[in-house]
């Protein structure tokens, strides 16, 4: 059970009473009459073949307040899309599967590419961006939640607590970030957040001072959580990265677009676990190694937009400061684990810190060598300005895919 402490400059909504889920859902049903709700599920086809997503869908079948579920499907051929239609058909809510690799959506993407308005690379960011566009186009929801499809500890209370702050008409929040304890199978997880993001933010504070953006980022208890919710109007102007910097990029955009009192974070689970990425010590283009580089570049880019300058000496100072702080954190986490009867591999933790330390320099080098890099996907307001019919085209493509293959799903 959480305490009531408010840390940092972002409102924290705690789980102080373990309120029954039926009570929360009854309120959400009432809220839905004024603020209809939707859920975005960015998914790889491979996740449809695992136990996590099957259980998630079983839980979602019990959710009474959603007006729409939008599933973004990546890495699926026609046969796999047909399978997906059958897989999701048990959902009682109105739902649509965006077949991102299908000919209709690929044709629309090609037109946007020609206008330099489409995501430059494949990945979760691109998937989420098209799902956000569809939510805008469908007009079925005012409050929207998003979570991953590989959560092995999922229950529907997680979704209810995540969407509640932006669904309650008496609340003024535009955006809510979920947080939780990354503890499962007797050990503390969440290495990238624990051993990279938090110590890096503390190091950046030492180098640049207590600037408001760094205080803001350090206020989030789990900034890399893939679970967040938002009001529909957020979707028009947000610009998100297409790489592993997605979560940091979303937080940075919310900082740019809204005052802090319109943002919050909420405790959505006592324990949370999902698919783990490999550390990839010897491959900077894979696993947690690539993730750490993308995340670090996302922070550097944001600081640069605020007028802070970087050079090789700056990055060496950041690296050295980070390294000392991160090593001290290992002892902190180890003591916390021991007191709670959990396991923590000190050698593995130090290997991760050493890799993250090297990757801070790699991220710095890439940042300096690509001064013209524009990693953000354009906002949907810009896209609709350049192609006014884009929302109609997006809905049409999704509906044609749905109708063409739904007969198989119903058989």
Commentary on this structure:
The chain is an alpha/beta fold and 411 residues long. The chain has one domain (11-410): Spore Coat Polysaccharide Biosynthesis Protein SpsA, Chain A. 52% of the residues lie in helices and 12% in strands. It has 16 helices and ten strands. The strands form two sheets. Strands 1-10-6-9-5-2-3-4 form an eight-stranded mixed sheet, with helices on both faces. A two-stranded antiparallel ribbon has the order 7-8. The model has no long low-confidence stretch (mean pLDDT 93).
Rg on CA atoms, Å? 21 Å
- Look up the CATH topology: Spore Coat Polysaccharide Biosynthesis Protein SpsA, Chain A
The succession of helices and strands, N to C, reads: EHEHHEHEHHEHEEEHHEHHEHHHHH
Mean pLDDT, rounded to whole units?
93
Question: How many domains is the backbone divided into?
Answer: 1
Q: Helicity, in percent?
A: 40-55%
CATH class: Alpha Beta
Strand content: 5-15%
Alpha-beta classification: alpha/beta
Helix run count: 16
CATH H-level homologous superfamily name: Spore Coat Polysaccharide Biosynthesis Protein SpsA, Chain A
- Report the sheet with the most strands, covering strand number, pairing sense and barrel closure: 8 strands, mixed
Poorly predicted runs of 5 or more residues: none
- Give the end-to-end Cα distance, rounded to a whole number of Å: 47 Å
Please give the CATH architecture.
Answer: Alpha-Beta Complex
Overall number of strands: 10
Order of strands in the sheet with most strands: 1-10-6-9-5-2-3-4
What's the shape? globular
